[in-house]
Design a protein that fits this description.
128 residues, 2 helices, 47% helix, disordered C terminus
């Protein structure tokens, strides 16, 4: 291409445009990576909660059966059961989701609700 006499344009706009597009692509890639990490964390949390509830629900069948049930539930949630411990009716599980730098591991516990009435507490039935 020929430049007109006295023109200071040497293609600088093209260089700046390529640089801006490269920066935008880099930012977009980082945002996608962070989104993948957040999604893996949420998947692991949901899988851990459901696996802990399943293990606590099957405590009467023994620790092996309860943890096998928790592993099936975790697999159905596209997660991996890392650890399962049953202490009485309370289950304690650790579940992992994702791979590589986006891997996330979450712990969850489940069991029966234990009511500890405090002194002076009234129930809804007592207020009627």
């Amino acid at each position: 291409m020929r430049c007109r006499a006295g023109s200071a344009d040497q293609g600088a706009a093209t260089v700046w445009s390529v640089g801006a597009v490269a920066v935008l692509c880099l930012v977009f890639g980082v945002v996608l990576a962070l989104g993948q990490a957040v999604a893996a964390r949420h998947r692991a949390a949901g899988g851990a909660d459901l696996a802990a509830l399943a293990a606590a629900d099957h405590w009467a069948r023994g620790g092996t059966a309860a943890c096998a049930r928790a592993e099936r539930i975790a697999a159905a949630q596209a997660t991996r059961l890392v650890r399962c411990v049953l202490t009485g009716q309370v289950s304690d599980v650790r579940v992992a989701a994702g791979w590589g730098p986006f891997a996330s591991e979450v712990r969850a516990r489940a069991g029966p609700a234990v009511e500890t009435p405090s002194a002076g507490a009234t129930s809804v039935a007592d207020r009627r």
